[in-house]
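User: quick one, fold this
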Amino acid sequence: MPERAMITLSYSTRISAVLGCEATWLSEALPHSQLHGKRLEWQIYGQRFGIRNHLRSQYPQICPRCVHHEGYCRQEWDLSIAALCVRHRCLLVDHCLKCCGRLRWDRPDLGVCHCGAILASLMERPADPGVFQIMAAVESLMAGESQTPEYWPQEGLPKVLGDLSLDGLITLIHGFGANSFAHQAGRTSQFTRVARTHEWAEILDRGVLRLRSFVGAGKSTIQELAARVSQPLLMRLANDGLCFNDAQVGRQIFEALYGKDEARRLRANHSQLELFE
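Assistant:
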């Protein structure tokens, strides 16, 4: 399904007239990109994102149970990280079980595939409580609410997660969970390809386990984690975090994993690159 099938900022004026809502409000909610200084950012629902594939701009995902009972889609479903439904404890659905095709924006109804089949929920999926803590934090941040850092240690996760913006939280989880094995080569697809819903569920599982291991980790555990974490994604957070807290947390974790010398080289290389921009 081509990306142009998604309703974007260019439609805001016409749609606002039909819906009877303010065009300004709608323009902030619809997905669009813009330059922020020298950096291209993507925005949706008033939230800023530094990595494009953290948004599901081409292929939607839903919880059929939520759609059936509430009659609308939740805004957090447009984020790649939102792979599970907190309410029904199941994976979101990004494909039709009948035709096996991926969901499209132009389907005949919210809970109906373009082939005409009623979309069905998947079975409940056992998940680490830390994963659902992340899902709850994503919902709160999307709603413009602040996090409560004290909740993270209850799940054995670093308290600094509570200092991150929505973009920072997604980038850190992605960085810790993207690689399925140690010393996996950095791939540009981590920044460009939108992973399927079940793939993001696996990223969440790995990310939570590794972040929990990071808390109070000894030297051998740190070395093991450093080999498994996606350094390019962590570098993106440390160098190009969209706010001061994101960059600060990224640098702290990068230094803890790779050492002060590597962190200094990272900052020096980034400063030199800025001279050529």
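User: anything notable?
Assistant: The chain has a mean pLDDT of 87.
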